[in-house]
Amino acid sequence: MAEIVIDGLGKVYADGTRAVDDLALDIQDGEFLVLVGPSGCGKTTALRMIAGLEQISEGTIRIGDRTVNSVPARDRDVAMVFQSYALYPHLNIFENIAFGLRLRKLPKDEIERRVREVAGVLELGEHLHRKPGQLSGGQRQRVAMGRAIVREPRAFLMDEPLSNLDAKLRVQMRAQIARIQRDLGVTTVYVTHDQTEAMTLGDRVAVMKRGVLQQVGPPQELYDHPANLFVAGFVGSPGMNLLGASLEVGGDGRYRVRVGSQALDLPDGLLHRRPALRDHAGGKVVLGIRPEDMEDAEIVGATEGATLTSVADLVEAMGSDVLVHFPVDADPVVTEDTRELARDAGADDAVTALSAAARDTGPEKGIVLV
Ligand code: ATP
């Protein structure tokens, strides 16, 4: 096992495309770090540089106590799991899993023991004689995992390993990967474009956009304190409501965010935590409110300065959740799991006050981004 320290990492492809720009990450020994971002943000390139499959243009990568910039992939002692599984079609499952161990010329009985042990953990024991073509997608994915695990590498590098599986299997395998990683405690870097996967798997999540790291932190920290608008919009499903607003100071000295004809008082606590917000008085800001942080203002008894009023224009029942859509000054706002709001929305004259957060605290949980 090993920590992975990335410093000033950059990649410029031969055609001049800059895929990764000045990436710095300090991945702890045994940590599960997820690199996430939209297609083309450079996450695969970054992972391939760690694996040694892509030349580094700038910066350094250290694995354990060794700088590996010029160490070939096979000598880095990391195991990569690809989206495509990359199994050998002509070899049976036993030989696919054993492949790396045979290359290392381990004794036969040790290979036998390690392959059977890993196959047991992954519930592949009865398929060892089959060829990859005779397995389901989920089983193939487990073989790819098995091949990585059996090598007992210092780190796992996984590139969208679940993206070829259907939704149900993906959730099952996600849990299995989480368990295996926790049990083995092997440093893992996992690439995905799926924020749910990132948030559920990662000890920490690193969000990238156009080659640049936007924020890295534990999932809850990204959720509660997104560093910028991109992270705020990327993390969470349904996404955070982002409303164009301006920051005002009233005659009473209170700070308010104005959204069209309505205004919400900023709680003192928020200004205390983010004193720099005061610098933006009179300027444009974005008010971010998570769908679950809005409630029916009447029911929770919210005061005027803590509410936005709107007429619901759409209700989506999604089984366990109900999403209610409101237009607020041309911006759509979505709230979640508020059955009272959903009921109101069914009435012809439904005018519903939304509380931007519970009770009379104003947008306490709302996030003001400048
Ligand atoms: P995806 O989720 O779609 O796989 P990604 O975030 O993993 O995307 P990369 O594959 O790392 O992104 O690509 C980052 C950028 O580098 C993209 O703009 C891509 O077009 C570009 N790129 C990737 N490989 C090459 C290459 N061999 N030559 C030139 N540009 C490349």
Outline the fold blueprint:
Elements (H helix, E strand, L loop, with lengths): L3 E9 L5 E10 L4 E5 L6 H9 L6 E6 L2 E2 L10 E4 L11 H11 L4 H14 L15 H14 L4 E5 L7 H18 L2 E6 L2 H7 L2 E6 L2 E6 L1 H6 L4 H6 L6 E9 L5 E5 L2 E4 L2 H6 L10 E6 L5 E2 H4 L6 E4 L3 E5 L2 E8 L2 E6 L2 H8 L5 E4 L11 E3 L1
Parallel strand pairs: 3-8, 3-9, 6-7, 7-8
Antiparallel strand pairs: 1-2, 1-4, 4-5, 9-10, 11-12, 11-14, 12-13, 14-21, 15-20, 16-20, 17-18, 18-19
The structure holds adenosine-5'-triphosphate (ATP).
The site of adenosine-5'-triphosphate (ATP) has 13 residues, from helix 1.
GO molecular function: ABC-type transporter activity; ATP binding; ATP hydrolysis activity
Protein name: Multiple sugar transport system ATP-binding protein
Keywords: ATP-binding, Nucleotide-binding, Sugar transport, Transport
Describe, in plain words, how this protein is organized in 3D.
The structure is a single chain. This protein has 370 residues and is α+β, with helices and mostly antiparallel strands. It has 2 domains: 4-234, P-loop containing nucleotide triphosphate hydrolases (Rossmann fold, 3-Layer(aba) Sandwich), CATH 3.40.50; 241-369, no CATH class. The chain has 11 helices and 21 strands. Helix 2 (93-103) packs across helix 3, helix 2 (93-103) packs parallel to helix 4 (137-150) and helix 3 (108-121) crosses helix 4. The radius of gyration is 25 Å and the shape is elongated. It starts with a strand and ends with a strand. Residues 357-364 have low confidence and may be disordered. The chain binds adenosine-5'-triphosphate. Adenosine-5'-triphosphate binds next to helix 1. Pfam families: ABC_tran, OB_MalK.
